[in-house]
Structures are given as C-alpha cells and as structure tokens.
Amino acid sequence: MKKLTHLVAGASVAFGLTVAASLPAAAVDFSGKTIEWTIPFSETGGSAKWANFFAPLLSENLPGNPTVVVKFMPGAGSTKGANWFQEQTHTDGTVMFGSSGSTQFPYLLGDPRVRYEYADWNPVMASGTGGVAYLNAEDGAKFDGTANNLKGKTYVYGNQGATRLDLIPALAWKMLGMDVEHVMGVKGRGDGRKMFESGEATIDYQTSSAFLKNVTPLVEEGKAVPMMTWGALGANGDIVRDPTFPDIPTFKEVCDATDGCETSGAAWDAWKAFFIAGFPSQKIAFLPAGTPQDVMDAYTKAFAAIAARPDFAEISAKRLGKYPMYVGADSKSALAGAITVSDSAKDYVTGWLQAEFGVSLN
Amino acid sequence: MDILNLALPALADAWSLILQPTVLMYLLLGVTMGLAIGVFPGLGGIAGLSLVLPFMFGLEPSYGLALMIGMVAVVPTSDTFASVLMGIPGSSASQATVLDGFPMAKKGLAARALSAAFASSLFGGLVGAFFLTFFILVARPIVLEFKSPELLMVSAFGLSMVGILAGRVALKGMMAAGVGMLVATIGEGPFNGELRMASYEFPYLADGLKLVIVGLGIFAVPEIVALLRKDKAISERTSLGAGWLAGVRDWWANKWLSMRCALIGVIVGVIPGLGGSVVDWIAYGHTVQTTRDRSGFGKGDVRGVVGPESSNNAKEGGGLVPTLLFGIPGSGSMAIFIGALSLLGSGELEVGQVMLKDNLNYTYAIVWLLALANVMGTILCIALSGQIARITNIRFALIAPFIFMIIAFAAFQSGQNLMDLAALFAIGFLGIMMRRFDWSRPAFLIGFVLANPVENYSNNANQIAGIRFRQGFEAGMDYIASPIVLTLLVITVVSVIVGLRQAKNIRAEGEVASGGKRAPLIFLLVMIGFVSFALYDTATIPSYAFVDAVFPVTIASASLLCGLVLLVQMRLRPETDALFADRETSGEDADNRFALWPTLSWFAALLLATSLLGFILALCGFLLAFFRLRAGLAWARSILLTAIGVAFMCFMAWLLNRDFPPGLLQHFVDLPWPLT
After folding, report:
1. Does A155 contact chain B (CB < 8 Å)?
2. Residue A357 domain-assigned?
3. CA distance A80 to chain B (A)
4. In this complex, which of A56, A113, A183 lies closest to B193 when CB atoms are compared?
5. Which of A278, A307, A325 is the last residue of a domain?
6. In terms of DSSP bridges, do strands A34-39 and A67-72 run parallel, antiparallel, or are they unpaired?
7. Does residue A59 lie within any of the structural domains?
8. How high is the ipTM of this complex?
9. Could A67 and B58 be called an inter-chain contact, meaning their C-beta atoms sit closer than 8 Å?
10. How many domains does chain B have?
11. Would you say residue A1 lies in a domain?
C-alpha cells in the first residue's frame, strides 16, 4: 500500500513537473523568429555595446532560440526612438526597446518633445552603469585630484543636448568652476568621443562600457587622462568609488578637494538626485504596452538565466563594467528609482538649464 | 616606415580573412546576384544592396562584406549586355556604352564588343582596387587629422559637382539638388528633434524618407516606365557572332586609353555622392577628345566601348575611398553600404576614421574582395554570355512586372508599410517628371545623400569655430582654414572649372528636345511651391530649437532664388530654348507605343489594390492582368508567370520572416500567411 502511494505520488509529481516544464515553453516559443531590439542611439555609444553584449546571450536563453538583432534608431538624443516605441503595441513579443538615462531625463524634466510614457512600458531587465570624465593630455597633466589648476581655461565638450544625460557632466564641471563650452547636437557619446580624438573637443565623458572599450586605449597611448567617475551608490545611499574604476576618484571627492565646490546644498542635492535617476539603473530593456504575462515571464526567465551564468560576472565586467543587473520585479523597482526625482531638484535643474543654455521647459 | 609596419601585416591578415571557403561562397553568391541585377535595365547597386540588407543583421562581418562587395563590384560588368545587345543601358553607369556598343552589335560584332567591354571592365576594376589600397596607405595619417571643417569640405566638394551634372541649364540642376536636400530634411531635426515638413498625426513622414525608396523611386521607376512605354520588340539576333579574341586584342591595342579612363573612373568615384551616372559620359568625352580620327564614333568604334567600360568598374574602388575613410557616401549605393555595415556582426565595424584605426584588416579585406569579385565577374560573364544574352531577347513587358515587384519588395524593407509603396510611387512620379523636363536626377540624389553630412558637419564646425574665435582670431583661423581645408577648397574650385568645361560632354539624360512652354512652366511652379512650403514650414520651429531650422532655411532660400530666376528666364526666352526641354513633345518618348498615364495607372492600381486587399493578393491580380491585357499573353502563360512571381515573393518573405503590408480586407478577415 505504501509503495503504491509512493508510486502514485511520484508519478503525479513527475507528471506535474513535465506539465509545468512544458507549459510555458508551449505557450511562448520564438523558434524561427527574429527579435528586434531597438536602441535609440547610434552604433557607437554605450547603449549599443550594452545591447550587443546581451543580444547573443538572450538568443541562447529564450525559448526557441530566436535571432536577436540590435537595431539603431538615433535621433533627437533618443527622443525619436522612444516616441517610436510608444507607438508600438504587442504583436508576437519580437519588439524590444532599450532606454537609457538620456531617455529618462527629458521625461523627468517635462521636455515638450517627449511623447512617451514610461508607465505604459513593461521593464524586463535593468542594469546600472557609471560614467568617467576625462581630459586631454595637456590639461590632464595639470590635474592633481582637484579642479583648482583647471580653472581659467576654456574647454570644449560635444554635448548631445542640454536635457540629456549630459547634464550630469555639465553640472559637475560647472560646480567645479570650470569653463566648458558646449557644442550642442552631437549624435551620440561615440560622436563626442570622435570629436575628442580629433582634438576638436578637449574634455569628454563616456559611460563605463564605452570608456572601457574606447577610451582605455587612449589613456594607454597618453592621449587622454581620466579625471573622475560619477561614483556608485553605496548601501546607505552615499556615493562611493565606482567598483569598475576603483583607482579613479569620484566627483564627490574632487568636489570636496576643490575650492568653492560644495558637497551639500541645492546644487549638490540636484546633481545627486539626477545621478541616481541616470546611472545606477540607467539602461532598461522594455517590452511594449499590452505584452501578456507569459511573454514577460519568458523574457524574465531568459535574463535571469543569463545573470545566473557562472561566468557572467567575468564576461560582463570586461564589457560592461561591474554593475548590478535587475531582472523581473527588481527591474520594476529599478525603473521606479530611475523616473522619480524630487521637485526641488527638478526646479534647480530647470532653472540652471534656462540660465546656462536658454532652454525653456515650460 | 610606420606605413609598412602597419599596412603589410594588415594586408596579410585581410588575405587570410577572406581566403576561407565560406567567405568565397558568399562572394560568389554576391557576384552572381550582382551580375543578374546588372543585366536587367532599371536595377542597379541601390536595388541590389537593399535586397540583401535584411540578411545583414548579425551576419559574420567577413561574409556580409563578401556578399555586398561582390554585388556592387560586378554590376558595371554585366550591365554591358543590355547596353550592347538591346541599346538600353543596363544601369546608369553604362549609358555611354550604348553609343558605340549597340551599333557594333547591329553589325554582327556583338561578341567583339562584349569581350572588349569585359576586358576593360576587369582592368578598370583592378585599377580601382589597386588605387584604393594605395590611397588607404598614403591617406591614413592625413585622414586621422580630419575634423568637422575638413569633413564639411569633403561633403561640399561632392555637392559642388551639381553644376557639372546639371546638363544644359545649370540653375535647374542646382534647384534639383536643393529639392533633394530639402526632401532629406523631412522628419525630425537632427539636433532638437523638431519636426520638419511632417507631423506626428502622420508618423510615416516623421521618420523621414529612406534612401532605398528615394534612390529606387528617382532612378529605377522612371526607367521601367520609359522602357515599358517603348515596349521594345525582341532583338532578332540569335547568336553573338565570333570575335571574342578580337575584342581582347582591341582592348590591348587601347590599353593606355583604358588606363586613362580607369583613372578618370577612380577620380570621379572618389568625389562624394557623384557615383555612376556621369562617369561613363566623362570617360566617353575623354575618349572622343583624345582620338584623332573621330569619324567612327557613334557608328561602332570599339574605343567608344573600351573608354566607358574601363571607367565604370574603376569607380567602385574610388567610391569606397570617401565611404571607408570618412563615412561620407561616395554614391547612393555606398550610402546603403554604410548603413548595412553597422548591421554586421555585433556592430563592431564602423566606417570613417575609426575603421582605418581599429579595423585595418577589414578595410584591406574589402580591397581584396573588390579585386577578386571583378575577376570572378568577368569569368562568369564570358562563360555564361550565351545564356545571359538570351535574357536580353525577352520582351521588356514580360520582365518589367517582375522588376517592379522586386523594387516594391526592396522598398518594403524599411518598414513593411503600405506607405513605403506609396512613397515609392510618389518619388517615382517625381522622377518621371524630372526625366521628362530634363531636371538632373543625379543632382537630386546627390543632394539627398549629402544633406545629412553637410548639415551635421556645418553645425559642429560652426559652433566650434565660434568658440575658437572667441578665444582669439588666430585660433579660429587655425581651425577653419587649416591646410587640408584650403587644399580641398582649391581642389573644389579647380574641379568645378574643369567640370564645367567638360559639362557639354555629359548628357546624363540624353538629348531632350524643347517644345511648348506650358508643361515645363507648370513643373517649375510645382517645384517652387514645394521649396516655398519648406521655407514656410520652418516657421513652426520654436526659436530655442533654431539650429534645426538653419539648414532648411538656407537651402530653401537658395533654391527659391534659383526657381525665381528660372521663372523670369522662362518669361523672356523663346520656347525653343533648352529651358523648356520636354520629352513628350518630340524625340523618342513622343513616338512611344504607350502613353505615360495609362502605363502609370498600372502601378497606381497596384498601390490602390494593396491598400484594399494586401500586397500578395494585389500582386496576383496585378501580374495576371498585366501579362494578359498589357503584354497580350495567353491565359495559361499569364497564370504560370504570375505563379512564379508570387512564389518568389513568398519565398523571400519566408526566408526573412516578413509579413507583407495588409490592406483593408485583412482588417476585417483573418487570413493565413502570406495573405495576412
């Protein structure tokens, strides 16, 4: 009798497992399909590297092993692509979008060109990044951990747009008392780097993955000198050194050491608020509005499987830097952090944008 | 020394990159497709590349390069078949070949003309590849110095060629280029995302028009319609005749001419945007000028074949120079090539200075592929000449629907959207009208292709120059008047002067007679209307985003000025003036078998039916009706040809996992694939 019970129980468990295992796979299957992952920037920036890193891994881990291609739709500092994605609705789960801090900021600031609404979209994965500001060789030699020797000279920076992620470096340099001239309308950070390499720009910043790949060689050749990172968010909400670049000081340290730069007060609070919105959960992968739960689950599972790879830490550190990756529900809360900023910080930044760039957001 | 240390290993590395069986297979595939595309009139590099574009996503870079380079390299080789055998240019790069190649074929010397053409093509192609190698070696250190003003000058150099292309009335050419640039500005502005001549209520235009659609619409559609209206009879010849060796000997006897024309091809290719539509005319002009006894030209002088054919293959090597070195397209097909490169692999290839720095091995792989493709293409052309010649004996009315179907499919690649077809039709109509009234279509396309680089680089250069001048006059002058900028300026001025002197030899659109005043005047008024609208539309751009308005305001004002001057000239001049060129009044087109509007309404009907029934059902009806009614075939053959065409479309779509644009019917009824 006992044996029979065991047998039945065993059989039903086995049956249950088979059903459980086969059900989601039967429901969502991407065999033979092509998933188009649209990145609203050009091929040369950090978002491109981020998506290109995940695309083949995602293909391995989604049911049916679809081809995952990364498409680029640059324009208006990602507003064009995001506005396009807002128009997409769920068809067969083959449309995916990757947003970045430059997509978040105009949304936060109420930019009139923004016709997208984050609340409509379905996040499936979010990952953080950092940023590194760097100087040309000549001025880099004068850098001593403070900006004191960098004042009284004009720097040129290729800026993607006043309301983009570029407001983090712009505000930071401003707080340090540096005189930076902004060349507006650069197509992506990659194009900004090209301007730096040709000598037209004399100061630049890149997100971590792009810095690792494209600026590290310049640093080794002696053509660029890293200045500061934006840092990373510590456990208690403080800004600590970026684990990817432990040897480079953070903006907070440089600001503390520089005459006239304060790590408290309205300017600092605003900078920090926008840093938290822009970097620790900067790049988010979305499925369009109306995506059913089973498709969401398939993607969540695939990203979770990627994160669980034994070699994930190693391969991602090399190409993306050492930053956390959020999947499923965690990506939802990461999104919430990325699109909330206090009104006082918003007011400070809008006032500063108006004064510095003449951008009116009202 | 640095050159040798870097370049030699990269050359060897590139060689090993392409000497793999799979890469060679892709190259062969590309060459075969390129040959096929070259044979059919109306199809050229733009159509070919846009067909393979969707296959490039994530493809191993060396495979994708082999496929694309193989294709663009040999289109100017096989387009000779149509030029020599039918008297119709197989692509825009072989128009001049018709002048002497076709008379040779009429005299029974087709084989001799073809083999002279192939030998010249091969030689020209190899010269082009050699030049590209050489240029990369020499230019690499200089190119890395290029900043925004230099890149702006390179683009402006391309634009300055518009005057030469313009043909008989320079102002018309300039306005055509202006309209091309304004069409390119449609959509969101590059700097602030302000909409230009578009609205979010109508999202298709907000994305801007794609080069594939503009390129195919402005060149391929008018060609197809023109040929359909002629409905040329089957050529009676059954054999190509003998004389293969005689043709090669002809080339050898003119090897220096061939060398000079190949160099012309390379130089014209290097000029951004210029591409194939003029290179053969310039080479032909040179050939005639440098020959003492000119009596045979136009009646079957083999030198009239050797010259253009040496130049048109060489131009591909030249065209890759601005494309690879600066990321500024050397021609319309190169613009598509740039877009395709970023799709390869995981996007590691990036044209421009970066390519020379980080991907020198791929850069040289492209050179090797170019040379190999030319050799392969020539061998295949000679080996298969009997079979290919038979294709040219088919009535055009039987081929045209298939060509149009392929063009429509290529146009769908950008968005699987009915609007793609509508845009193709609209631009096609503009192309037909430009051809009719002798407005330069190459100038229009140059404007379209170069508008983006010019707008971006002028914006950057302007802002940075402003910053430098604030630092001091000297710093500013150092920036905008660097030795490279000045050199490019001198080259531009010299080439405009030389070019204008050559312009009389360039009849990129053939001879066009002049007729009544009314029709050309109406077309001019429409063009002025568009330009005025573009100018008026910039008023909607708010002042804080004025950078998005600077370029369209400048171009629209200049074009408007051209248009108004033309208007005054039209008032003053007699109707026999070149200003009033109109193909419909006299000459070839006036004697066509079919009128323009009925021919055009066939395509309009396809567009309308697609919006109602979806593409595949509409295509079935279109093909069947066309073969039965227009081509006059029996029902059985009409049905067979229709089935072949539809099956081919479905196969392509299946291969790519694409759906066709749905119509109103699909809105109400769920139909199985491919009818969805």
Report:
1. no
2. no
3. 7
4. A113
5. A278
6. parallel
7. yes
8. 0.71
9. yes
10. 2
11. no
